[in-house]
Target: ENPP1-3/EXOG-like endonuclease/phosphodiesterase domain-containing protein
Amino acid sequence: MSASTFREQRVVLFLCVGMASTSCDQVIALEHFIDPGSVYSLVGPTARLRPKQPGDVAQLVEALRCRDSHLLAYAKERLPKRYHYSDHRRIEPVVLDMDSGYLVLNREADKNPALCNGGSHGYDNMAPGMQSLFVAHGPAFRQNVTARPFRSIELYELMTELLGIEPEPNNGTRGTLHYLLRKPKPLPEEPSMRTPDMCVVDGSELGEGDKEDGCMCRNTVRPSTAPDALPRHTPWGLPSQEGTEAESEMSPCLLSNRDYVTAFDRTLRLPLWTAFTLNGKHEHAIANACWERDARLKGADLSCHDYETLATRSLTKEPLFPPELASSRAEQSAVWLHSNALPFYHNHSAGVRRELLRLVQLWEARHGSLHLVTGPAFDLGGNGRRPPLHMLRAVAEADGVLMPPVPTHVFCVVTRCLSEGVPVDRCSAEKLDAAAFLLPHLLRPENCQPWQQYLLQHSATVGDVELLTGLRFYRGLPRYERIRLRTAIPQALWPAP
Model:
């Protein structure tokens, strides 16, 4: 082929997997923990197990949890959501997630150099050895452009565009790889989105409060009069949702406070998200907590008696906007509104969130300012997708008592500015960077991991969070910058000072 002919050809070279070295010295035998004869097993770099006796999944996971530091045992619906590896009947109910280079076999006697010495793939795609190779050439592609890391599911959209065919529905994001093309096709029109309206803020319409709600404090917090609270805490627009007309009638309403903004769902009786911008100025002395109901909601939030009922299930109320981040002592009272509270399992999940808070404080010290959106997520189907509202309401109304559904996860989307010294809410769009988390909400951890390893394990893309919550973030940014932020793949936790 001549050089001129080659220049006119479109060539895409893609290696679908990486590779990690393996050896018989890095084999974990199941026989040390369980009877291999009690399960159907597929072994190797990622083992999958099915108990021979129905109903033994929880016992099997329990027998394997915390038994080896190189092995993480999950019921498949509890795998990190970024894996997207649960919603299929051919995936066995228990998955063993191995450190890169380690193998699972049934028995020590199964070790065979021909089997375990060499290399393998299928490990966590965050591991450096699992990253692949992508090279593209031809008149459709821009020259001398380095591709950002991307998921292989994005290639389908690229291929259909190069071939001039209409893509079928798929898991990729249209436009993710457009920056590699000379003349990408126009993006399709976006679906209409809805954003919450403001809750009641007229002082004459505020609820008087229920004197029998069990709360020690009542009507001590008045609505914020800070006119800049909404643009400061939602600098790129409100998180929004797709929805039908019927759903919009039950949409959440906004509660604006000086230090944070909350979207509260009066049907579920929970905050759906809380957004706030941090600028390094905080009141370090924390006042004693005195929880109270939010008078603006006229009784739609939970009472202190309701939380006493939840306490029988090892749940406690934790503020989504924490007191450590309040701008002043006077503003700390707004932290203890029930509109800012979420039921947390007080042992494990509350502790995980406090560790994330410590990390956020370190990031804030390094960058000067951050933006966060955090709230509950409900993976009722175990498939990483937002359930229909009627399913959530059915859970909330179980047993004839209107109590909130317990979240399966807590999400957090953190945004920083890569331009040194520039506040995040004034940062140019191309300099914004995002980190996202989908933290399992559990009474105790699935596995024994150091905090930072646990947080990294349950990091996610912004798109993963959007898929599970139904929210759309960064709506005020240029569309390609939104696509970049929602598809950026986590590779490590941001460095902290």
User: Anything to note?
Assistant: The chain has a mean pLDDT of 89. The first strand starts at residue 11 and ends at 15. The CA atoms of residues 285 and 329 lie 7 Å apart. The chain has three domains: 3-14+136-180, 20-128, 197-487.
